[in-house]
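Below is how a single chain appears once it has passed through the pipeline. First comes the sequence as given, then the structure the pipeline wrote out for it. We keep one example in the README because the format questions we get most often are answered faster by looking than by reading.
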Amino acid sequence: MELSDNQNTVIVEGVQYSNDGTVTLNLSNDKKLKLALEKWSELGQPINKILSDKEQKILEQEACCTLIRNKMLSFLARREHSAEELRRKLKQSSSILKTDDFPDLLERCLQEMQERGFQSDDRFTRQYVESKLANKSHGPSKILAELFNRGIPREQANLVLDELGDRELWLKKSIECLEKIQKKGNPLSPHTVSQKLYQQGFTWETIEKVVEIFHGMENLPDEGGINRNFLIRKN
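Resulting structure:
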């Protein structure tokens, strides 16, 4: 019987090789599947032969993995991502068909990214903390919560925070935060100071120190802002 006589048979009719290490397969059912060249080679390059159901499924899975990898690499090219961030973004992506085996394929591709050094939660955590310390007046609790929401365990986040931050740094950050609040022109009672700093993630130990400093400034003339040098001397 000729292959074309059976509508259920599927064969690979043509292969297009790309410079990016992928191949595009033209199937007899008008589908086009793009997969990694190494995977195509591992499958024995079954061109012009009837594909079994198992072979068709493998090819479709490999094509899905190619889409997942490309999406992951595009996200990682912009900035570091945690593994959980990549999971969420890939699950929300409308450009990838979500088959029943999609979750398993996603985890497989994520593991490949980690093994090849393209994705690292340790690297993401360190870069995230460094960025927050350089650009934001956030306390450690808020940074911890943000990292936890991105899938980073508290133990792992604490290790980085303990390495990059100390009491002196958090006190400095809390003073910077207080300066920004005072620039808005609102009256600052000790209660307001405590509440605002707590909302920004500073510990009660740091807040008590800042409130103590704040009390010592109540009788100072208003110079349009907090005197940073005075605060540092008080410490």
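The chain is about 60% helix and 5% strand.

See the next section for the split statistics.
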